[in-house]
Amino acid sequence: EEHTDYTSYWHAGLAEISRFALTMTRYGEEREGDAVFVFVTEPFLPEAQVKHERPDEQPDVTVLKLNATRTFLTGIYPYNLMTSSFVPTDGSPSLKVSASVTEWCGMAFAQLNRRGGQVEADIRSYFEREGDQDFVMDDAMDDVPFEDALWQEIRRDPSALPTGDVRLVPAMHALRLYHEELRPYEAHAELVDDGEVSRYSLRYAGLSRHLVIEFMAAFPHAIVSFEETQNGETTRGVRTHSIMDAYWSHNSNDDAYLRTALGL
After folding, report:
1. CB burial of residue 230 (10 Å; 0-12, 13-18, 19+)
2. Predicted pLDDT at 139
3. Virtual CA dihedral for 194, 243, 154, 59, nearest 10 degrees?
4. Tens of pLDDT, residues 179-204
5. Model-level pTM greater than 0.85?
6. Between the CA of residue 42 and those of 48, 60, 100, 261, what are the distances in Å?
């Protein structure tokens, strides 16, 4: 049954690591790079909002974590984008998402924490007009989804994806990359089933952003490709490699050969 499939796939002590061929427009030119998505389950402390690592009796929840990286070059200097999101495997709202954009000019970072019936936001940036900010989002945030958690919803149960007119927080890396206000935005969402491959799309009303994710209709609903357009710049990722691996145990120089299995 579906639950057995989910358990055997996501609770086998391995991470799913997928490499995507990345094409990204930046400063009016198309760049090529890599995107790597790492999905893995782990115990999570809902109050401290960190991984539960100590052998104690603190109550935790199981989350499906996604670490998503995007790397590319702009002339002489590189861009490195990373987003980490933490979504309970029981389908309840995402608990945390953080994102960083680093390049030779400096770093921008943002984080959302959902706890105590509210969403706390933190921004750290070297840009003057963003500066350092700590604030609580408006009170009506209990059921407002994070775009960065929709990837896990696809992997868990695509039929539970929000559709129609929705209000959600856009991808954190995109808000930082384009220096947009960190808040919920109105969007229209559609889920289309085309046989073996399904397509989920988001088009924001008050933001020049459009996202399309293609994924396999059958479990485990592997991500096939994604495309996001914002402010006239388009990013596209097409999956080229995918492995299941306990990568944290392969940290020796002798293990570097395993990167070839990911096309890296």
Report:
1. buried
2. 67
3. 160
4. 999 999 999 999 999 899 999 999 99
5. yes
6. 15, 10, 22, 24
- Look at residue 75 and give its three-state secondary structure: coil
**Mean of per-residue pLDDT scores for the chain:** 93
For residue 40, give the amino acid letter: V
Beta-ladder partners of 70: 35, 81
Both tokens of 150, joined, read 């929709």
Q: Tell me the torsion sign for CA atoms 193, 197, 198, 201.
A: negative
* Distance, CA of 183 to chain centre: 17
Spell out the long-range contacts of 205-210 with Cβ–Cβ below 8 A and sequence spacing 24 or more.
Answer: 207/170, 207/180, 208/232, 209/170, 209/171, 209/174
81-to-34, 71, 127, 174 alpha-carbon distances in Å: 11, 6, 17, 9
Give the H/E segment covering residue 103: strand 96-103
Provide the phi-psi class of 52: left if phi over 0, else alpha when psi is between -120 and 50, else beta: beta
Per-residue pLDDT at 240: 98
Q: Is 107 left (phi over 0), alpha (psi -120 to 50) or beta?
A: beta
* Secondary structure letter of residue 170 according to DSSP: P
Residues paired with 202 in a beta bridge? 189, 211
